[in-house]
Amino acid sequence: MKYYIGIHLLPDPEFSSNVLMNALFSKLHRAFVKNGCGNIGISFPQENKTLGDTLRLHGSQSILEHFMSLGWLNCLTDYTERSGIMQVPDNCKYRCVRRVQVKSNLERLYRRSVKNGRLTIEEAQEKINNSKEQCLKLPFVQIKSFSSDQLFRLFIQQGKLLDSPIDGNFSAYGLSKTATIPWF
To answer: Quick one: three-class SS letters along the chain?
Structure first.
């Protein structure tokens, strides 16, 4: 991954940067699903408590050129500014950017298990009473599921810095449990 494109959210009086990042990420995800781009990774260089207002796409020059030619970003041109395809600086570090999922609503999970016949009502109630819900303090995007049409939070963790890259594939979110992206 020697190339990247930076997409910066412009300030807007009507929409917060979080709302715009949700819209940008949703458009990106739809484009990945439609075009099967498992070779483009993403990062958020200004991530802190939120994901910030910049998203980077990482990949080869030809893959990024093709992906951007698909027009997936056209409807957000009033809200974004994008760089051209830039070369990653020499001597950068690398990091894994991945999705983190937890069982945050145990009652819903056990209710689903009862409905699917995996647990009885009594077993589910006992498990709810003996379990603790996990809460994350990671930044997230809120997007709509294509399959269930439900809104959900997709928590994103940017891993520790590494000296060398790790190859691999990226999900339809541009994230990976193992593959790294350049960090600079």
So the answer is: CCEEEEEEECCCCCCCHHHHHHHHHHHHHHHHHHHCCCCCEEECCCCCCCCCCEEEEEECHHHHHHHHHCCCCHHHCCCEEECCCEECCCCCEEEEEEEECCCCCHHHHHHHHHHCCCCCHHHHHHHHHHCCCCCCCCCEEEEECCCCCCEEEEEEEECCCECCCCCCCCCCCCCCCCCEEEEC
The predicted-structure confidence for 36-75, as pLDDT tens digits, reads as follows 879 999 999 999 889 999 999 999 999 999 999 999 999 9
CATH top-level class for 3-100+136-183? alpha beta
To the question of pTM greater than 0.85 for the whole model, the response is no
Tens-digit pLDDT profile for residues 96-112? 999 998 765 666 666 77
> How far apart, in whole angstroms, are the C-alpha atoms of residue 26 and residue 154?
11
Which among 8, 29, 58, 66 is annotated as catalytic? 29
**Catalytic site includes residue 29:** yes
> Domain segments of the chain: what residues?
3-100+136-183
Those residues with Cβ within 8 angstroms of residue 150's Cβ, 6 or more apart along the chain or in another chain = 144
